[in-house]
Amino acid sequence: MWDGFGEGRSFTCEGDRPVQERSDRRIDLESGIGHPKPLFGVSLRLAKQMEGERRRRGMSGPGRAAMWCGFGLLLWPLLAGCDGGSSKSNIWVYQYPDFYKPNLKRVGVLPFADRTRHRGAGGRIGDRISAILTNNRTYEVYTRQHLDDVLSEQDLAAAGIVEADLARKIGRLKSVQALICGVCDRYEVTTRNETRYNTAPVWGKNRQGQPAVTSWKKIPYPWTRHDAFVECHVVVIDTVTGRQIAAVHEPSSTWAAGSPPKYTAADLLRYAEQDQINRIVRAIAVTRSQVKLKGDVLRTASDFYDQEWDWERKITPEDEKLYVVVHLPPEADRNNFKIAIVPKGEREAVAAKPFVWTKKVARRGYRFDVAGIADRYGYGEYQAKLYSGPEPIARYNFSIVETR
Asked: Which entry of 33, 108, 301, 357 is 20 to 30 Å from 398 by CA?
């Protein structure tokens, strides 16, 4: 049975509430995601304006029903798609590092050198990455315990990013194909304390003797902000050539502010550390994650000429070619998918084509024999379905007709 993911391996990535801070939005520390904009925000504003207009004019009963019917017709293309296609908003995929090859099976993880004031931070991060990679099963992992007979404990602790000669030596002695090593450059929390002010009314009486606000006063209160930073440089070294085949430098930061802040400095530092570890693991190992599908995932075309598709929903045998054109995000690179063509209302596929997606192209067309399908199953309505597992992730309606 086709499982959608080829070799059937299971990859995991530790994800204890990763926290990060983007320059353009605040990140929710509980969920690790930003606060999104309301779905169909423009349409909702339009709905509110129409509701206000209805109330102003006193519209009710049939008038209101007619208005909302018209609004529904306007909104329908947004909800249903105006091209006869539909797709899931998110799918799960395996994300592969650029350097990854299936024959890369054994790696060694050296303790990270520590250049911070927090003693042991680098070693702890390196050990946690080793543990996650071991459970992740992308590689067979050689940890500190496997390497202590090659280098002294002192050398291991100060290894950091090793030289090419040492990498080749470890590779020969331990039969590892690559070394993962790194340096922790920053591991700290900064705290800023301020005195801020609220204003409150001072009540008195006016000339008529009635209660009134006579002035305003400032009420001081303490305000604190914590900022946590964790920054590591990590490289992957080929032990045959001694060359760096990958480098990771994605600093993590998080913050909280308030009177007092909801999260302590220690909490924030722990969250930033976890986020840094997650970033490193995603960059050097195969991990499973959700990606968003955008735009027209599936469409049909009759030809491809001068780097442009000849889009067509009504295909004839005279066209000779039927292309199902797939548009997937680059994060789906190297994942297995399958296209199936099904007569509308039926379950059995009349044609199917498995493929492996590549991020080298934005769209790729897969050719089917339109004349053969028409001869065997006749003219009529069909549906192209895209699978990444047992359930379709996208559909597109088209028809095979005798003439256009």
From this structure: 357
DSSP-derived letter for residue 374 is: H
Q: How many residues in total does the chain contain?
A: 404
Helix 265-284 with 121-136: angle, nearest 10 deg: 50
Domains for the chain: give ranges and CATH numbers.
93-191+226-290 (3.40.50.10610), 293-404 (2.60.40.1930)
Residues 299, 320: Cα–Cα separation, whole Å: 17
Residue pair 386/392 in contact by the 8 Å Cβ criterion: yes
- Tens digit of each residue's pLDDT (9 = 90 or more) over 39-64: 333 334 444 454 555 555 554 444 55
To the nearest 5 percent, what fractions of the chain are helix, strand and coil?
25, 40, 35
Burial of 6 (0-12, 13-18, 19+ CB in 10 A): middle
CA 374 to chain centre: 40
Phi and psi at 197, nearest 5°, equal -135, 140
Task: Name all contacts of 153-159 with Cβ < 8 Å and 24+ positions apart.
Answer: 156/110, 156/111, 157/111, 157/113, 157/123, 158/113, 159/110, 159/111, 159/113
| Distance separating alpha carbons of residues 203 and 215, to the nearest angstrom | 7
Distances 305 to 288, 297, 308, 311, 312 between C-alpha atoms, Å: 36, 20, 5, 11, 14
Alpha-carbon span 50 to 70, nearest angstrom: 11
Distance of CA 46 to the CA centre of its chain: 31
